[in-house]
User: Fold this.
Amino acid sequence: MKIKKRSWAEPFKIKVVEPLKMTSREDRLKAIKKGGYNTFLLKSDDVYIDLLTDSGTSAMSDYQWAGMMLGDEAYAGSKNYYNLEDNVKKYYGFKYLVPTHQGRGAEHIVSKILIKKGDYIPGNMYFTTTRLHQELAGGTFVDVIIDEAHDPDNLHPFKGNIDLNKLDKLVKEVGVKKIPYVSVAATVNMAGGQPISIQNVKELKVFCDKHRIKMWCDATRAVENAYFIKTREKGYANKTIAEILKEFCSYFEGIWVSAKKDCLVNIGGLLATRNWKVFEEARNLVVVYEGLHTYGGLAGRDMEAMARGIEEMVELDHIKARIGQVEYIGNLLIKAKVPIVKPIGGHAIFLNAKKFLSHIPQTQFPAQTLAAEIYIDSGVRTMERGIVSAGRNKVTGDHNYPKLELVRLTFPRRVYTQAHMDVTFESIVEVFEKRKSIKGMKMIYEPKYLRFFQARFEKLK
Ligand code: F0G
Assistant:
C-alpha cells in the first residue's frame, strides 16, 4: 500500500486518566429537564463528552503539575509571581503585570481605569463578560468588526478584522475624547474563533496613533491567533509562534488575558501593560477587588502553573495539534453537509443553528434547543451562542437579535482524543437527520446579568 499523506497525532501520551460516565437516554432526558434545558445547569457527572467550554478545562502537563508542588504560598512577594512576571515579559512583551483570579477580574479593572461614563468602546464583536464590564463602567460597546464576520458562510481568512471605515464613522460621530481605547480581541470568540491579521492590527495602529486613541487587546486566545497568522498571512510562515505573539502584542498599550484558555491552566488571569500610570492604578485596584498585587486572587501554585503553561502554549507541536483537532471534526461536519461557521475556528466548531433548525424562529431559541437536543442524543455538552447569550438592549429592554445564532462545541486542550471527536460527529449527524421533528422552547426564568448562564426553558408542545 502506498501512503499518500502522513497523519499527525496528539503530541503527548497519557499518564493519568479520569473515567467517563456513560448515561442512558432516559437519564439524560431527566437531567436536561431538571436543568431547565440549559446545558450550563447540568451536573458534569451527567455529561459524557464535555464541550461546554475550553475555559479552565485543559489538561496540565507533568511539568506544570511538578510546578504546583513548588507553590510559594507567601502572602506577599511569592517567587511564583516573579516567575510569572518573567514569562509575561518574555512571551507577551509587557513590563508590568497584575495577576487576577481569571479574565473577568482583569476586564473589571481595565474597564474601571480607562472608561468614563458616556464613553464609547469600539471592538471587533462583543464578548459577554468584556462588554458587561465596559457597560458597568459607564461605556457603550460599538461593534466595528468587518461585515464578513456576521456571515457564517463567508470564507474570509481573517474574519476578526476591524473595519476602519466603521471606526472612522464612530470617531466622526462621537469624537475621539469619548473613545478611551479600541478593544481588540485576538481570535474572536463570538464570531466563531476567527483571527485578526497583523496587517489589520498595523493599519489600526496607524489610525489610532493619528487620532491618539489607545489600543488594548483581549489576548485570551492570542496564541491561537498567532497560529492562524503563521499559516494564513504572507511573510509569517517561517516565524515561530513565540515571535508572532510578541510582535502581535507589541502594537498594544496593554492586554488582559483569561489564562484559562491559551495558558493551559484551570484558573487564572492577568492584566499586563507597558504604561506605568495604568499599571499603578491597576495595582491599586487589584488590592480592592482581587487580592494583593503579587497574587491577585491566585495561590502561588496557580501562578507557577500559569508561568509554565505560558512556556508550553507557544510550542508549535502543541498548537498545531490543538487546532488540528478542531479542524478534524470541522471537516467531517462540512463533508456531512452539517451547517457550521466557516472557516473552521481556533477553539471551537460553531453549528449554524439558524440553518440547522431553520423552521424554529429566533424568538424560540433555536441554538438553545439544538444544544439540548445534542445532549439528549449522546451526552455531549455544548452551549448556546445566539439570542440568549446576546442579552437585552440596555435602552429598549427588547432582546438583542444577533445575526449569528450558533451552538458552540468548544474543545478543551490536551483532553480528548480523535475517537471522542468521531463519537461527537456521529451524534450531531444523527440529530441533523431528524432535525425537522425538533420543536423550539420558551424562556421561563431570566436572570438580570449574563442570562445564558442561568436562564431556564421549557419545550414548546
Ligand atoms: N475574553 C474572552 C475572549 C473569553 O473567551 C473569556 C471567557 C473571557 C474574556 C473572560 O474570562 O472566564 O476567565 O473570566 N470565555 C469563556 C468561554 C467563559 O467559555 O468562552 P474568564
The chain has a mean pLDDT of 97. The radius of gyration is 22 Å. Residues 53, 55, 102-104, 127, 129-130, 185, 189, 218, 220, 258, 260, 269 surround F0G (CB under 6 Å).
